[in-house]
Amino acid sequence: MLKVKPERFLDDLHHLRSFGAAGVGKGVVRPAYSPPDIAARQWLAERMAEAGLRPQFDPVGSLFGLVDGPSLLLGSHSDSQPEGGWLDGALGVIAGLEIARAARETGGPPVSVVSFQDEEGRFGVTTGSAIWSGNLALEVADRQTDRMGVSFAEARAAMAHLAGKFVDPSQFSGFMELHIEQGPWLSEAKEAVGIVTDIVGIRDMRITFDGEQNHAGTTPMHRRRDAFQGLARFNALINERFRNVVSPQTVWTIGHVALHPDAHSIVPGRATFSMQWRDGDTERLSRMETVIRDAAEEVASAAGLGLSFGDMLGLEPVPMDARLRAALCESADTVAPGRWRQMQSGALHDATNVARLMPAAMLFVPSINGISHAFAEDTDEADLVTGLMVLAGAVGRGSV
Amino acid sequence: MLKVKPERFLDDLHHLRSFGAAGVGKGVVRPAYSPPDIAARQWLAERMAEAGLRPQFDPVGSLFGLVDGPSLLLGSHSDSQPEGGWLDGALGVIAGLEIARAARETGGPPVSVVSFQDEEGRFGVTTGSAIWSGNLALEVADRQTDRMGVSFAEARAAMAHLAGKFVDPSQFSGFMELHIEQGPWLSEAKEAVGIVTDIVGIRDMRITFDGEQNHAGTTPMHRRRDAFQGLARFNALINERFRNVVSPQTVWTIGHVALHPDAHSIVPGRATFSMQWRDGDTERLSRMETVIRDAAEEVASAAGLGLSFGDMLGLEPVPMDARLRAALCESADTVAPGRWRQMQSGALHDATNVARLMPAAMLFVPSINGISHAFAEDTDEADLVTGLMVLAGAVGRGSV
Question: I want to staple A353 with a disulfide (CB 3.0 to 4.6 A). Which of A40, A129, A212, B148 is the partner?
Answer without folding.
Answer: A129
